[in-house]
Automatic annotation (TrEMBL):
Protein name: Uncharacterized protein
UniProt superkingdom: Bacteria
Species annotation: Pseudomonas glycinae
Length: 199
């Protein structure tokens, strides 16, 4: 399997560096140990890839990946060859700005999913573009390996286990599995008169 990446913002890495340096210096509450002990000089970044999102309405209406909305740029942050964080840049009025730094399980789960994909006979010899898919209302995060005529999705943490286990899914198989939960969540949202759900 060969990974390809979209054309990244030319100043993406320069935009991220100061934010990473600042985060490494503060090493605040909740930062994972690997991140907290990382030396700024030993930090490296992956190629940039895009996040995409689908809403409950999209899933309920049977819309698929071609309807996914383009989101932030993602970079995996490595220290000593180990993934320690997921850094995000948002496009704002034609410029990229630092958006967030996730030092939870997102980065390591992404790397684990890519290892799983590497070992899959289904993807042997194929070229795929790395993407990430979010369905926030269901807490679903999936690695999306996009190729002409084929999309493979791998749900990762924090996706609830009862929704989907980590493994390789076709678009049709995963969305068929998600639809009952999406329909149920949409009914709850639609019936909510307090306006508090989803906030």
């Amino acid at each position: 399997m060969k990974l390809t990446y979209p054309k990244a913002p030319s100043n993406g890495v320069q935009t991220l560096r100061p934010a990473l340096q600042a985060a490494l210096q503060t090493q605040g509450f909740g930062v994972n140990r690997q991140f907290a002990s990382a030396a700024p000089a030993g930090i490296s970044l992956s190629e940039a890839y895009r996040g995409y999102s689908l809403s409950l309405d999209d899933l309920s209406q049977g819309k698929g990946l071609k309807n996914a909305r383009v989101g932030d740029w993602h970079y995996l942050v490595f220290s000593g060859g180990v993934s320690i964080a997921d850094a995000q840049l948002a496009e704002v009025r034609g410029h990229v700005e630092f958006a967030s730094l996730n030092h939870g399980n997102l980065a390591s789960a992404t790397v684990d999913a890519l290892k799983l994909a590497e070992q899959s006979p289904q993807l042997k010899g194929k070229t795929v573009e790395l993407r990430m898919l979010f369905v926030s209302a269901l807490h679903l995060v999936a690695i999306w390996l996009h190729a002409a005529g084929e999309d493979v999705l791998i749900p990762i943490e924090p996706t609830p286990k009862e929704l989907a286990l980590t493994g390789l899914y076709s678009e049709a198989a995963l969305f068929a599995q998600l639809k009952p939960a999406a329909d149920q969540a949409k009914r709850r949202f639609d019936a909510d008169t307090t306006g508090l759900l989803g906030s």
